[in-house]
Every structure is written in structure tokens, then in C-alpha cells.
Amino acid sequence: MKRFIFILIIFSFTGIFKSQYNEQLYKKALSDIYQNPDNSQKMAQEMLKNEKNPDNLIKLYKLISHSYISKRDFDKSLDWVLKMKELSKNVTNPEQKVKILNATSIQYQQMGLNSKTLEILDESYQICSQLPDGKFRTYYLGLNSALRGLVYKSQDNNELALEKLLIGLEYVKKVGNYDNAIANSSVFLYNIGYCYFYLKRYSEAEKYFKKSAEVAKSVQAESLEAFAYKGLSENFTALGKHQEAIDLLKKSVNLSKKVGDLVLSEGIYKGFSDNYLALQDWNNYEVYNKLYIETKFAREQSELASLNKSIDVQNQENNKKIEEQKNRLRIISAIIILISSILFIWFLLKFIKHKKRNQLLLEKLNQINKITT
């Protein structure tokens, strides 16, 4: 009887500590990133309970990080990227390394740390290009190219950005909806639209903004659809189609209610403000201009907080490297001192031995001289 009770206790504890990870639930959380990131975070946090598998932890950390990026909360997103980086120290699987590097590069790109982003993308590309052909390699090479495009776009190098984004798009089209690829292709299309917009090629821009909205709608990625309409409205504003632009911005507002994306909200309010100003609707202009200024300030504060944290993390990493170098120098110095001491003692002993030998020879020579005289 006691043995039976003991077995029951063991089974009850194993039930308590059982992993909560579920692939179907993960896919649902992944699909919610662009339409309901709060729900995505909630599901991921639930699956994290008692999770020990490194592969599952990396997937969930990455998911939570991206959900915060979807809300432009870079400070909290960075926390989860740092958890991934800590976990990566024991990772040997090259695919997992690529996933971690990809998530880290997205984080730094969103924070505007372009040189760091490109550095990580170079490392990721080296690993990814050596993997066997398949959906994983194709997809992450596409993401790598597209992220480079986003860096060049932020540097106003729109021609090069366009080239990299179009390459990334072609890669991602080949993998179907592998790992949320369709939703990400909407992001690529949106940014391609803006590259054409900044190059004043408005007809091409309109084509890609519309395509971005269609793709986002097909996977119910409401925030991405809202971004596409926001981009299209800006295109219409440049063409003087102010009422059409306002109608699109209203659609964006309705689609983005669950998201809380500060960058999206800022763009929408600026769009309303610019178009109402052009139409000389002063009341609406004042309302939306005020909202634009407030949202812009909130977004800048959020980015500043995450940037400060990133600087702190970078300083810690640099200090750690400096300390490691100091320890190496201490070890090298100790070895040099030890070898020098051994050599000095060896030469000293040799000198003493040689001196004694010379002394003995001198004494013998003196004795011989005495005898001969």
C-alpha cells in the first residue's frame, strides 16, 4: 500500500512539472502577433511554465520578443532577446543559432543600431548559407536579405534597399506559410512600397501597398493590413487625394485597435493631421496634431529606454571582455615571470657551479706552481 501511494505521489509531481508547450497553441500565438500581440504573449507565457526544453524555450522567447516589437515596446522586447542570448551560450544546433541571431538582428534594426544589425546579419548568413537546402535555409536567407533592405531603407539608400527587399521577397515566396512567412511577406511588400514612394514612383508604390494589404488580410494580420492602408494613404496624400487618404486612415484605426503599436498610431495621427491641414479643416487638424505629438513623444521615450538598456548591456559585455583580457594578461605575465625566474635560477646555479669549478682549478694550478718551484 505504501509503495502504491509513493507511485501516486511521483506521478502527481511529474504531472505538476509537465511541459505546457503545444505546437498548435504555438502556431495560434504566432498568428496573433500582428493582430493581437497581448493574446500572443499570454499564450506564450502559459506555455513557458515548467518548460525546460531549450528548443521550445528559444521559440517562445522569440515569440514574446516579436510580440513586444509588434507593439513597439522595445524595452521589454530586449529583455527576451537577452534571455535568448544567455540561452544561446549552450546551443550547438546551427538552426537554433540562426533563429537567435535573426531575432537579435530584428531587435537592433528596430532600435536603429544599424552597424550592429549588419554585423549580426553577416554572422547569421555565414551559418545559414552552409545549411542543407530546405525551407529553413530558404526562409532565413530571405529574412537576412530583407533585414539588410530595412537597414538601407533607414539610411535613405532606397535603391539598394529595394534590391535587397525584392530578393528577400522572392526567397520567402518559395516556402508557403512556413514559420509565419506569409505575414512577413506583407511586411516586405509594405517596405517595398515605401522605397518606391521615397523614389517618387507613386504608381509602383500604390501597387505594393495594395498587395501588402491583400496578403495581410489573407492571414488576418490586422496590424499589417492597417500599416498597408497607412502607407497607401500617404501615397494618396502626396498625389493630393486627401479625402481618399482620410478614408484609408479610418480603416487603419479600426484595424489597429487591439495592437497598440506606437509607430502605427503615430503615422495614422500624422496622416490625419496632414490631410485635414490640406483641407483646411482646422478643428480636426488640431485634434490629430495633438495626438500625433503625444504619440511621437511616447514612442521616443520607449525607444530611449530600450536604447539605454542596450547601451548598459553593451557596456557589460565590453567590461566582461576587458576583464577576460586582463585575466589572460595576468596569466601570461605570471607564466613569463615564472619562466624568467626559473631561467634566472638556472643561470645563477650554472654561474655558481662554474665559479666553484674555476676556483678548484685555480687552487690546483697554485698547488702545481708550488711544486714546480
TrEMBL record:
Keywords: Coiled coil, Cytoplasm, Membrane, Repeat, TPR repeat, Transmembrane, Transmembrane helix. Its main location: cytoplasm. Residues 297-324 form a coiled coil. The chain crosses the membrane at residues 329-349. GO terms for cellular component: cytoplasm. InterPro entries: Bac_ResReg_Asp_Phosphatase, TPR-like_helical_dom_sf, TPR_rpt. This is Tetratricopeptide repeat-containing protein. It comes from Epilithonimonas zeae.
